[in-house]
Amino acid sequence: MDNDIEYIRALMAQYRADIAPLLKYLPWLREATFASTMTMYKGQDASEGAFSFPVYDATLMSFIKDATASSLMDRNYPYVYTRKHITSAEQERDVIVACDYKSWDTLKGIFSKYVLGGRTKGTLWSQGVSEQIFCLVLEQMNAIVTEWDAERNLEDK
Predict the structure, then answer these.
(1) What SS3 state is found at 39?
(2) pLDDT tens digits, one per residue of 27-45
(3) Which whole-number Å values give the CA distances from 51 to 41, 45, 112, 125, 135, in the listed order?
(4) What's the rounded Cα separation, in Å, for the pair 115 and 63?
(5) Residue 52 phi/psi, 5° resolution?
(6) Which residues pair with 55 in a beta bridge?
(7) pLDDT grade, residue 157 (50/70/90)?
(8) Is 33 helix (H, G, I), strand (E, B) or coil?
(9) Contact assessment for residue 19 and residue 3, using Cβ atoms and an 8 Å cutoff
(10) 82-92 exposure pattern, b = at least 16 Cβ within 10 A, e = fewer
């Protein structure tokens, strides 16, 4: 029993360390919208056939850089979607809210879809902000770690 508690305690310490650099973005993620995170640049010759590309908010790019460097990235995130039968942003939000510490990999999978998928599908980063996926995942991860710490502190007394 003590080994289980020690294992979970070490796991929670690792989880806390994983999310700590990303929590500073929570206030920005709560306020940001799709329009505020991405604009389309068409160049000086805004003619009919001109090539355009997205220009992202600097804070969003910093967040993506920090998220990509974290251990929260799961390159096998499509399996989470298959296993949980997730097909919409509404289902993603429902799954996120229902997660506990045993479902950490599910949270990582949903988070990874938007961070890693945004490299090839440009609107995913902005959708992750506007659909509140980034915000919800980080809040749920933080709640899991905080709740577990609170429960452990009560039991230790």
Answers:
(1) strand
(2) 999 998 877 888 777 777 6
(3) 9, 9, 29, 21, 32
(4) 9
(5) -125, 155
(6) 39
(7) very low
(8) coil
(9) no
(10) eebebeeeeeb
Residues in the chain: 157
Question: Rounded to whole angstroms, what are the CA distances from 139 to 63, 96, 106, 114, 146?
Answer: 15, 10, 14, 16, 10
Q: Which two tokens stand for residue 39?
A: 């604009």
Which alpha helices (DSSP H) does the chain contain, by range? 2-19, 26-31, 34-37, 58-69, 77-84, 89-98, 104-117, 123-130, 133-156
Q: 97-116: b or e for each residue (b if 16 or more CB lie within 10 Å)?
A: eebeeebbebbbbbbbbbbb
Contact of 73 with 115, CB cutoff 8 Å: yes
Give dist(CA 6, CA 52) in Å, integer: 53
- Give the tens place of pLDDT for each residue, 58-69: 999 999 999 999
Looking at the DSSP assignment, which residues form a beta bridge with residue 39?
A: 55
What phi, psi does 56 have (nearest 5°)?
A: -100, 155
If you search the block for the tokens 């919409």, which residue do you land on? 88
Residue 51 exposure: Cα atoms within 13 Å on the Cβ side = 0
> Token pair for residue 103?
């479902």
